[in-house]
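Lesson 9: reading folded outputs for more than one chain in a single document. The general rule is that every protein is listed as its sequence immediately followed by its structure tokens, and records are never interleaved. Here is the first one.
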Amino acid sequence: MSKIEKFIAEMNEDYQFKGESIVLGGAMIDGECQTNTLVSIPLKMMNRHGLIAGSTGSGKTKTLQILAENLSEKGVPVLLMDVKGDLSGIAAPSPGHKKIDERHAQIGIPFAPATSPVEFLTLSDEKGVRLRATVSEFGPVLFSKILDLTSTQSGILAIIFKYCDDEKIPLLDLKDLKKVLQFITNEGKKTFEAEYGRVSTVSAGTIVRKIIELEQQGAEQFFGERSFEVEDLVRHDENGKGIVSILRLTDIQDKPKLFSTFMLQLLAEIYSTFPEQGDSDRPKLVLFIDEAHLIFSQASKPLLEQIEAIVKLIRSKGVGIYFVTQNPVDIPDAVLSQLGTKIQHALRAFTAKDRKAIKLAAQNFPDTPYYTTSSLLTELGIGEALVTVLNEKGIPTPLVHTLLRAPKSRMDVLTEREINKIVKASEIVELYEDVEDRESAYEILNKKIELFQEKEHQEEMKKQEVKAKKSTSRRKEKSTFDKVVNSSVGRTVVRELTRGLLGVLGIKSSRRRRRKKNSWF
């Protein structure tokens, strides 16, 4: 048996699955695609997470599109993080092309244009369903990790949440949290400390500054009501296709803190809301996080640990997470070790650092007698990738050089008019469009502060009245004395007293003069 025949036999054995699967493309060896030697991913293993990596322009976004549209076709809802704004084309069918037909002929599968049902979501001013969450839904532990607080500051935040729960004060947005911090360190300080202990004004000030830092990245648009229900991510259309929810993040690249905050809250909400599913024939939801390095690049250590923990646990909820980035080193090792599917597009080496990174990336893949992985990584063409997945028993399949199929949908963005049409037809956009601003901590505590200020004003007025009365009394006493002294009777009395006193002095003076005069004789 020749090398190629042996390769084909092994591929057909290793990549043939009993259950449903998604065809990625055709296996390649020595630069040639072996027709009808298909590379697939078992549908039941799509909740074991994955990585799609490769240099700019190598085709990783189109690979994401291939997976998303095929999952939707098989009834699995999908959430796409569209950072570059180039994934909206999944809502329109491919116009087809001669090169696409040639590629599919090499692979051995027909090409049929198709579309997927799409829902646009937004965190900012982009068009689509608005995503919001309340501060209370985050809880003190998660919120502390987002703000990167110390243990002391985290303790203060936990007490604040407890205080608001006890007093039935809703914490909805960031201005609510800032108002509580202001209240317990000023007007409400005595009452709060009597029940919950002393709060350092320095620590409270630090927490406020970190909240402001979060606000400067646009987080005030995210915190509030109405909260987005994660169940709306797992809907289907009338034909049974899974809805592809596209979160438009084109204006979020310079706001990594907001992106990390949203992702962590979303994953935590999914984990706490979805029931345990275990191993089933298909995942309940699959997330694709494009430009995944934005989550990890500026995340604090506690935040990274929280993300890593959720990635490990969320699989049991039937949720798969696929990270899309330029280099595997962008993903923390603790997360990378949890990824079952690895689709590696071309890497480019321009510096010694790049070559070192490629060698490290090659070590992440299973050994194979058919390829020199470190060399092949730099030689892959556009639309080609090195692939390894988990088979139905959870065992990694051999590494295979794959010629990827073309997306069934449009490989270009939708026009503004097409996007508007999809948003207008949405069943849930109006549900989340308007901001609900019900009475919460900000309004409740402002009223309390006004009562405190009014009470202080009344007490100050009483003090001023008492002071004024005492001053008036003293003036009255002085006024009575003046009247008596200045009256005719008073003047007579004063004059007689003065005269009597001067008379005595006059007598004594006269006697002294007489004695002095008689002394001459």
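And here is the second record, again sequence then tokens.
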Amino acid sequence: MDRPIIHRILKLALFALVVLLVLLPVVFLLLASIGLGPLGPKTNITLGNYLAVLEDPFFASSLVNSITFAALSSLVATGLGFVLAFINRATDAPLASVLRSVMVAMLAMPSFLESIGWTFLLSPRAGLVNVIYSRLVGAQEPLFNIYSFAGLVFAMGLNLTPVSFFLISPAFSLIDKTLIEMSTVFGGGLWRTIYRVYLPIVLPSIVSAYIYTFIIGLEAFDTPAIIGIPAGIYVLTTSIYKKMVSDIPPDYGGATAYAVFLAALASVALWSYRFVVAHAEKYGSLTGRAEVSPTLRLGRKLKFTITLIIMTYLVIHPISVVGVLILASLHSFWNPSVLFQNITLENFLLFLTYPLSWVAAINSALVALITCIVTVIGGLMVSYFCYRRPFKGSHTFALITSLPLAVPPMVLAIGVYWTALFSNVGIYGTVWALVYAYSLRYLPLVVRLVVGPLLQIGREIEDAARIYGGIWRSLTRVILPLMRGPLIYAATYVTVIVLTNLSVAVLLVTKESVVLSTTLYSLWNTGERLEATAGGLLYFSVTLSVALIGNSLLTKSDRQ
């Protein structure tokens, strides 16, 4: 058989396998939701799960809570992200350059650890801020109760602010220098320039950042679990967790139906996001030119005001959050009224000697490493063969591989759960179930990170390598060296996000496949909160180190 035919057969077989692995969780999720599969003796098709959910007042309240929570959280994040991005990219305010480094660091902090920090600060009775406030003014009521819907929105909004910041920041490079100069010449002050020049051009990025953070808020589990569940506030993700894990007996059918509704809602939001991104030019008539936007020189009063805004943000987030986590981890008993009297490293030692800590650490590293390898190699291959060297059916294949983007992580975890039970291949309860779920989730994201730079590589160099050494030589001698930077960025991003993600792991782990995120969450739920905090700080130091190493490698790659 000719070598090109063999290559074509192998390529089609590989793509068929990928399509099968992508579609199985979706298919089995839908089958389970209508009563088919390992749900017990009843195997008849039924819409009973959906009807029961629609008639359940708890579902209605969870749905309203989810939409309202996501909408308000993304509003906080987008507004704050725009202000901070403007200060960082368009002004000469002191400390403005610090903001980007802070945002990178906060992206590496697990969401559940950040939420834990807010409980130590703002819980009504044991929150450091509320205790200090009560002592100063003698008030009986807390200054701010984190265990409320407003507290939930506040915590999630700040958590999503770095995401909005990085989505909005690049848009400031599109602003034409002459537009700023014209506004200055005709007497436009700072606020008029922002309103008439900056805002119209940045508006598409603001809208897309809002919708994207809305999707993240809709899919979020960490913050609603740490803050919302104790407050009795349930969203769709925590309702799914409750039905599958907390309820006795577990309501698998109801949880699966919840998951389908959540996936449908997320799909609508994702479609809106793609529509906005694809039609961004319709939101404004101004376009950028070759000259970059200048840095606005602020007067003394404005510098003082903006510096005060920056310092206020930094004190609230992240200084106070990280500071209280460190403070709590060093106490044998958390009592904000009596601080610095029982300083100890015992909580760190207890976590390090906890029976599952090292197993969880090894599993976390293994899952993150394998997922990183699978998604980066798979993402490069999908990008190359679907966009660089398309074949018949490549568009359909690319569309199928992007399907997990429309599926929230917790819903994807349920799909993998049912896939493991239906297929009975022995991956449930092992780290391979986690690798499967994470790989499905982040493969399409890697494709989007690498496809742009890949398409910018000149074809003539690649064609020359293909003539003298075939496709393998082209990939190893041309594509990989030129794609080093984007691949390092994608690998760093996937590794950090897998390490910090809780919503996928919380439904798939068993005692043998525990990871650090679920171990810390279990410690927190069982009352060992200071040990969980100490372990969380160690965990944060690891994820931050990974992010910094990746950033260092990326910087080195850019210089070469």
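What the second record shows: Residues 57-90 form the longest helix (34 residues).
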